[in-house]
Amino acid sequence: MNSYTALGQWFEYLNKDCDYPSWSQYLINRLRSFNAGLRGADIGCGNGYFTRALKRAGYDVFGIDISPEMLTRARAIAADEGLRCEFLLGDITKLKLTGKIDFATAVNDCLNYVPPSKLHSAFRRVYACLNRGGVFHFDISSEYKIRSVIGDNMFGDAGEDISYMWFNTPEEDGVTMELTFFVRGGDGRYSRYDETHRQYIHTEEGVQKALLDCGFSAVYTQGHLGTPDKSVRINFTAVK
After folding, report:
1. Contacting residues for 59 by C-beta, under 8 A, at least 6 apart
2. What is the pTM of this model?
3. Cα gap 86→93, rounded to integer Å
């Protein structure tokens, strides 16, 4: 699917209301609470906000994403902010690194893009890249969110430089999202871009079992930003 082509340049801007500062601090606190080492990978890094936040916090971290457009924007933002961050093209289900790392993160729905049939492959790949005692922290949008919040609803927004329409079609195992963007160019004219996204439902119990099946010794769960409420987003921290 042609996901994150036009959106790749605008993802961080369009998600600016998700409280990135609090989210990144939660992520940092979570890694510290498990005494994670400093070398790590931010998988599904998007435009690199969490990669940059981890870098500023003293972590030797690099970003990985499946979208070249996402990575182009990530490199540009990091350079503008004076940060030397490495960003690599990669797929979590085919992840292979040249050396071991102390932690891996996959924040903001990365695993919802992985089909259930490939979930074990993704977890095995991450497991193989971690040092003993390494930490894997990620989140998923819950079944309730995908079925009831996203569901068959429509969303949209009209901005000065970019406007979008977002239509959702429920599927048995997730949701198909059709997005249309109108992006303003330097001459004031707008260009139209269309994208299709597919997100899959994973249950808390299913994810926990898959992690343990792939060798992780312990799995801990929380709601968004560490709250007990897992109705919309579930965080997982797995230890090798």
Report:
1. 31, 38, 39, 40
2. 0.94
3. 20
Instruction: Report whether pLDDT(1) > 60.
Output: no
Using DSSP's 3-state secondary structure scheme, residue 9 falls into helix
Task: Copy the structure tokens of residue 128.
Answer: 């193989």
**Nearest C-alpha neighbor of 215 from the set 143, 101, 108, 129:** 129
CATH of the domain at 176: 2.20.25.110
| Tens digit of each residue's pLDDT (9 = 90 or more) over 67-109 | 999 999 999 999 999 999 999 999 999 999 999 999 999 999 9
Total structural domains within the chain: 2
Residue in the structure block whose two tokens are 């080492």 = 37
Q: Which residues pair with 104 in a beta bridge?
A: 41, 136
What is d(CA 145, CA 175) in angstroms, rounded to the nearest whole number?
11
Supply the range of the domain harboring residue 152. 145-199
Q: Are residues 44 and 163 in the same domain?
A: no
Please tell me the predicted confidence (pLDDT) of residue 128: 98
List the helix and strand counts (H, then E) for the chain: 7, 11
Q: What is the CATH number of the domain that holds 78?
A: 3.40.50.150
- Tracing tokens 């690099």 back to the chain, one arrives at 62
